[in-house]
Each structure stands twice: as C-alpha cells, then as structure tokens.
Design brief:
The chain is mostly helical and 181 residues long. 69% of the residues lie in helices and 0% in strands. The chain is built from 9 helices and no strands. Helix 8 packs antiparallel against helix 9. It is elongated, with a radius of gyration of 18 Å. The termini are far apart. The model has no long low-confidence stretch (mean pLDDT 89).
Length: 181
C-alpha cells in the first residue's frame, strides 16, 4: 500500500496544531499508519517539522497568489489575504511556535519571500495613505502572523466561531493600522 505523503502531513499538522508535543507514535496513529511507515517518510520529528514548514510555505504562497494583493485597495487585499490564509491557519499556528524553525542555519528563504510580499502590501497601504506610517511593514507583517495564529487557536478551542475568523483578524489589525486624521 502506497503512503499518501500529503495526507500524512495534513494529519500531522491537524494533530500538532492541537497538541504540539505529540509524539511520533501519536502522529503515526493520527495518520493511520505505523510508526515504522512514518519513519520511512520522515526520519524523525525534525524532518517532519521541516516537511510541515515546506507545506506551510506552499500554502501561504498559494494564499498570497489567490488574494491578488495588487488588486483594489490595500485594505481589500488584506481582507482577501486573511480569508485565503484561513485554510492554513492551524498549520501556521503550529509553525509560528515551533522554535526549531528559527534555530541553526537561519530562516528558510521561503518565509523571507512571503514576508517580503506581505510587507509590500502594508507598504502599498502606507503609500496610499490607508495605513499608519509609524508602524513598519515588517512589524505589521509579524502582527498579522500573530493574529492568524491566535485566531486559529481560538477557533480550534471553540472560543471563536469559524465564520468570524477573517472579520476579527482584519478588524483588529486595521483598527490599529489605519491612519488617524
């Protein structure tokens, strides 16, 4: 029987989003495979997390493309972006807190490219007068990641309705990012 690597990664992401300390045995059970099969796919937790990181970057790139960041106002583009990122929010929440991604050889180039694209959206909003200029695009990008992670956890724990995810994140971020007259 062939193992569907994507299904294994998505099962691992779903479990690790809920329980970031889950063991490889628990990940294997969640994916419906044996621990030996899991280890044939991923040599250990580090390899699994790196594969999840690659999946997260791919999903963010797809969300950025689907959000059409250059269309309409920066506020409209931001709303579309958060809506598109909602699909990957649980995985992003796990990755956001996974310390090993930020150790050693430095940041994955994929994150840097994503950061640059999101920061460009915030810069466009600043240039158009929509967003405050006293907050850097880099800071607004980090704040967006933090709100997405927090939103994912709140939805996962049932403290927030799924349908409110985009609204809450965008309203809180824009409420702090909009330029005041």
């Amino acid at each position: 029987m062939a193992v569907d690597r994507d299904q294994v990664l998505r099962s691992a992401a779903a479990l690790l989003t809920r329980r970031s300390t889950a063991t490889m045995d628990e990940v294997a059970r969640a994916a419906g495979i044996s621990r030996a099969t899991l280890h044939r796919q991923f040599a250990g937790r580090d390899a699994l997390v790196r594969a999840l990181e690659a999946l997260g970057i791919d999903e963010c790139e797809a969300a950025l493309d689907a959000a059409r960041l250059d269309d309409g106002t920066a506020q409209e583009a931001l709303r579309r972006l958060v809506n598109e990122l909602e699909k990957a929010a649980g995985l992003l929440a796990f990755l956001y807190t996974e310390n090993q991604l930020f150790e050693g050889e430095g940041q994955n180039e994929g994150w840097a490219l994503l950061d640059a694209r999101i920061a460009a959206l915030f810069r466009r909003g600043q240039d158009s007068g929509e967003f405050r200029i006293d907050l850097t695009p880099a800071w607004l990008t980090e704040a967006l990641y933090g709100l997405i992670a927090s939103g994912a956890w709140a939805v996962l724990e049932g403290r927030v309705a799924t349908k409110d995810f985009t609204f809450m994140i965008v309203e809180l971020l824009l409420g702090g990012a909009l330029r005041r007259e």
